[in-house]
């Protein structure tokens, strides 16, 4: 059902809540909403029951709620007063205030209340590693702009988080002026939008509420294990979450037995940074990153490079045999020496490639895997031995 359009009504609001004894009389048309206002079948919005403009009754009827639309100036004054009232209760978290005012009779013999609804941030969402989600709370309350406190309401006010999958419970009902508040727990895994909408019977589309995240760093290596002794390198990705202006912020990296290509590294505008690490030795290494008072860590394993060592030796043997067998007039002892030298040269040539020194000037397209190790060592043994004194360059 569509919300009926109501007339603009004046509502006097003093600069402070405590000093205002009563509101100015309301005039013109106001909107009467039956107590039967409920959250209807559609779970994503709150709808009001049928309403019609009526003249203000001489006395408010218990169980009925009336919406009072405020002009811009009165709305601004009212919001400021509500913010001061909340701050006076030692609440310093961000505040979202609903537009307009709801007027209703208080329960029992208490005077009428004119209410302003609001959502109070329960603090920045923090990351729960077990749930793999950001968790926190919001608190919903109403305050009387005419100064009364702790008044029960004759027409309790329902509220609903439209994004119900992130809220527990997604619907609450406020039965009296606040505090106390109605608390809703928030659990978010998708941070594409950090805004939820809280709806009420007079605002079924929902009022946007921005959620805030506690600053957090994450660090991940592109592989969990690599070969040790500097034979392999791997990318390290860093992300900062919950920082207002991360661009240019320096992230410190530290670890024992790890060489970082760059440190510290600077975050970009999206809070991301990347560097490369190279192994040193073998075993597990812990990596720590720190920035803006927060830190994060991860671990990486450096394995014994047996496969690479075997592939390099075999490549050296093959390259050496190619060279030796081309030398037809060499004795057995001489050939054995040449083979050992060829294997060692092949290993050195491969090791220099790992360090970025291409001694043979060959533009290798692929530089990973045992096949590359074998071929590089073989070529090094075959070609490299010709540069050594006393080694025959061709068959004689």
Given helix and strand content, the structural type is alpha+beta
Shape: rod-shaped
**Could you spell the SSE succession in H and E letters?**
EEEHEEEEEEEEEEEEEEEEEEEEHHH
How many domain modules?
3
Assembly context of the chains? single chain
Using brief descriptors, characterize the structure shown.
five-stranded mixed sheet; disordered N terminus; 396 residues; Immunoglobulin-like; alpha+beta
The gist of it:
With 396 residues, the protein is α+β, with helices and mostly antiparallel strands. Helices cover 19% and strands 35% of the residues.
Describe this structure in words.
The chain has 396 residues and is α+β, with helices and mostly antiparallel strands. It has three domains: 30-210, no CATH class; 216-303, Sandwich (Immunoglobulin-like); 306-387, no CATH class. Helix content is 19%, strand content 35%. The protein has helices at residues 72-88, 306-325, 332-354, 369-384; strands at 30-33, 51-54, 65-68, 95-97, 101-104, 113-121, 126-128, 133-144, 152-161, 167-168, 171-176, 182-188, 195-200, 203-210, 216-221, 225-227, 233-241, 250-254, 258-260, 265-266, 272-279, 283-291, 294-303. The strands form four sheets. Strands 1, 2, 3, 4, 5, 6, 7, 8, 10 and 12 form a ten-stranded antiparallel β-sheet that branches. A five-stranded mixed β-sheet has the order 16-23-22-18-20, with no helix packed on it. Strands 11-9-13-14 form a four-stranded antiparallel β-sheet, with no helix packed on it. Helix 2 (306-325) crosses helix 3, helix 2 packs parallel to helix 4 and helix 3 crosses helix 4. The longest helix has 23 residues, at 332-354. It starts with 29 loop residues before the first strand and ends in a 12-residue tail after the last helix.
